[in-house]
């Protein structure tokens, strides 16, 4: 009888919990038709292409997105005025609660629309002597007698160096430190920072005026010791945060596309309290990008086109689901295979990888593969021997511009060598753009080299020589004895480490 009562209590608690969706959307330059002097010049009312017709189209297009998105709380960026918000609310009566803020001399501000009761709004000022940006909007909500906060951000764009975004992060963190330890909160908005902004600074040194310190990674602590904070490690350091982009496969991580490169300026970042046993809970794997066909086609975002007076925004909305009760069956997956590693971004605790066979070795780097599973690159692998099998303890993994790697491990034991190594290699031509072939090793394949590409069977793939002195000077045929199928940013590539990995053919 006691067990039945407990079971009924659990079921009732689950039934009476409330799930709610939170979204963030940079609507891109939504100006009204009143002249305020602070407009961007192309949005001065009734000049050029910004007029009543354009405004009405923009309004209806934003309304379509918000209606289809159907979030309970929507954070908006790049709104010019209360007039714009009022026009939205007239068509969205279900959003009874809303707030808009901006600086007087700023072109745009931020806003919140909510079906859930707002009990307080606070403006966090972030000001500079030489530039004017936007304040941070701190909004407190109440649902089922539970209070929680959302911090709606719009940090400076990449036209400004990193020190400006770092200051935003510090002002935000200082405010968070003033909150009661039991207060749940969500950081979201257009941070103009990729989830892996540390890598961005290394590839775009013009932004780096902070000695590679970034606001999103180092100040808000979405990384610790250069590793992303995970759901399992978030409690290891105070004021650390988990970035929900890590739930998506690498190829799906984008809300903005710049020069054909995926970017994640829009973020949703959670503290440890969203993963505890009290108040508000995050629903695992509910984070996603809202991208219906009318917002993106052929990898092009259908942004506002001033000349055509149509379109939406250069950003895509992001969203996630939360609950007032802890959700059942939200266990973190236990890992045992290399395939499992490709399904995640960070491991929550060390795990054992059995029968990992070394199929390639170059100096201190190695590639290991499990039978009937996948291959993966390993750093600091000087103790691993080619063609040997090992049981390994894996401590951390990383993504290097999309390439999955193991960067910390130890050998548990050495196993018997496999009798046949041939099955561990790719010795026939494939579609090498297939992400499932990442880190595999090709063997004894003939290509034609020309201008940084290897050509084969009416296809081609970029080739990267670790030693630039090995790059062929002219078009030639090559026998690739062994080489890694690598991946850099969005592109697969064959990686050749040393001169013994290939030979010229006549």
Automatic annotation (TrEMBL):
Alphabetic keyword roster: Endonuclease, Hydrolase, Nuclease
Pfam families (alphabetical): Exo_endo_phos_3 (PF19580)
Domain Endonuclease/exonuclease/phosphatase intervals: 22-321
SUPFAM superfamilies: DNase I-like
InterPro entries according to UniProt: Endo/exonu/phosph_ase_sf, Endo/exonuclease/phosphatase
GO molecular function: endonuclease activity
Name of protein: Endonuclease
Species of provenance: Malaciobacter molluscorum LMG 25693
């Amino acid at each position: 009888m006691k067990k039945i009562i407990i079971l009924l209590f659990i079921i009732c608690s689950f039934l009476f919990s409330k799930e709610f969706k939170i979204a963030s959307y940079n609507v891109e330059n939504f100006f009204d038709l009143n002249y305020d002097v602070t407009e961007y010049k192309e949005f001065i009312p009734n000049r050029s292409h910004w007029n009543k017709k354009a405004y009405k189209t923009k309004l209806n297009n934003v309304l379509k997105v918000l209606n289809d998105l159907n979030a309970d709380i929507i954070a908006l960026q790049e709104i010019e005025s209360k007039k714009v918000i009022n026009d939205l609310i007239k068509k969205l009566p279900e959003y009874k609660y809303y707030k808009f803020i901006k600086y007087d001399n700023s072109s745009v501000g931020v806003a919140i629309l909510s079906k859930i009761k707002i009990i307080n709004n606070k403006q966090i000022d972030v000001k500079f002597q030489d530039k004017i940006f936007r304040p941070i909007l701190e909004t407190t909500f109440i649902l089922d007698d539970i209070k929680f906060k959302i911090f709606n951000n719009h940090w400076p764009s990449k036209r400004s160096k990193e020190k400006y975004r770092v200051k935003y992060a510090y002002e935000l963190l200082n405010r968070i430190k003033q909150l009661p330890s039991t207060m749940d909160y969500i950081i979201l908005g257009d941070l103009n920072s990729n989830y892996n902004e540390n890598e961005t600074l290394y590839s775009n040194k013009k932004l780096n005026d902070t000695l590679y310190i970034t606001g999103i990674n180092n100040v808000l602590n979405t990384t610790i010791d250069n590793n992303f904070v995970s759901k399992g490690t978030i409690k290891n350091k105070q004021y650390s945060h988990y970035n929900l982009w890590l739930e998506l496969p690498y190829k799906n991580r984008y809300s903005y596309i710049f020069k054909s490169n995926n970017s994640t300026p829009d973020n949703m970042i959670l503290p440890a309290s969203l993963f505890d046993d009290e108040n508000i809970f995050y629903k695992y794997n509910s984070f996603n990008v809202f991208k219906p066909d009318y917002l993106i086609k052929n990898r092009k975002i259908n942004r506002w086109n001033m000349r055509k007076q149509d379109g939406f925004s250069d950003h895509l909305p992001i969203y996630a689901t939360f609950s007032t009760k802890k959700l059942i069956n939200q266990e973190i997956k236990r890992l045992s295979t290399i395939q499992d590693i490709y399904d995640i971004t960070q491991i929550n605790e060390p795990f054992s990888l059995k029968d990992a066979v070394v199929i390639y070795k170059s100096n201190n780097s190695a590639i290991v593969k499990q039978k009937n599973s996948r291959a993966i690159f390993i750093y600091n692998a000087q103790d691993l021997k080619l063609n040997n099998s090992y049981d390994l303890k894996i401590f951390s993994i990383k993504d290097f511009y999309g390439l999955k790697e193991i960067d910390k491990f130890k050998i548990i034991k050495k196993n018997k060598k496999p009798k046949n190594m041939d099955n561990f290699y790719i010795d026939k031509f494939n579609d090498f753009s297939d992400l499932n072939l990442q880190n595999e090793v090709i063997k004894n394949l003939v290509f034609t080299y020309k201008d940084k590409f290897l050509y084969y069977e009416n296809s081609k793939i970029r080739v990267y020589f670790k030693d630039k002195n090995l790059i062929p000077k002219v078009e030639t045929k090559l026998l690739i004895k062994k080489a890694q199928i690598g991946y850099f940013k969005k592109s697969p590539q064959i990686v050749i480490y040393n001169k013994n990995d290939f030979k010229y053919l006549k």
